[in-house]
Amino acid sequence: MFANHQPIVPATIPAPNGEYAIEAQGLSVFYGGFRAVKDIALKVRTRKITAFIGPSGCGKSTLLRAFNRMNELIPTAHAAGAVLYHGQDIYAPDVDPVEVRRRIGMVFQKANPFPKTIYENVAWGATINGYRGNMAELVEQSLRQTALWDEVKDKLQQSALALSGGQQQRLCIARAIAVKPDIILMDEPASALDPIATLKIEELMRELAQNYTIIIVTHNMQQAARASDFTAFLLMDSDRAGTLIEYGPTRQIFTRPTDQRTEDYITGRFG
Fold first, then answer.
1. Are 87 and 16 in contact (CB under 8 A)?
2. What are the pLDDT digits (tens) for 183-193?
3. Strand partners, 40
4. What's the whole-model pTM score?
């Protein structure tokens, strides 16, 4: 639990001020003595899709994982600064990182279904979080939200590993939303998929953004332009730390960037 704090607002209730779901304030992330990202300041809008773009090694995935304390699973990692979720700093010493990760879910680059049935995959997170409702209804609802129900409703007791790559990724998204998060982080969720499966993931993100705040890391400029509402461009600084160069509405970033480095990256002059 978030001890000694006001209760965090459930995903089914609008955020206190509505406009922003999460905010980084002077955020730096270190691996041992190496600073991977530095002094990040940005506000992520509620129920919008925000894309992190930039060259390999500029800290996009590190920044993404800082938003639900996943970096802490690496023994040498630590963060400085603050990440405010509904006004509460998730890095405060009395905050439970497990609760943070329940509220702020993660979908990884490579689909990682458990070697269990489709049903068990979706039910797993809810089960370990003590869900006491109708599990069959929750599983169906989660699969419907990810446009997977009609494809698997007669296969729920079959292994999730038998699904196609695109279906496995949508199953992992269903597993993430079954625990009723507020925010969904996606680290290049379509990079291993074919173009048709990629478009399905993008369409799914658009549907989910009606109820969830989504932050996605992508190397695909077309995907960022198509799927996101806001875009943050990161670049490695002279000290090799990832730095936020520009952040704003996607249309502006892709058509009228204010920084020449943003335009150079988007137009393929480097990266």
1. yes
2. 999 999 998 88
3. 27
4. 0.90
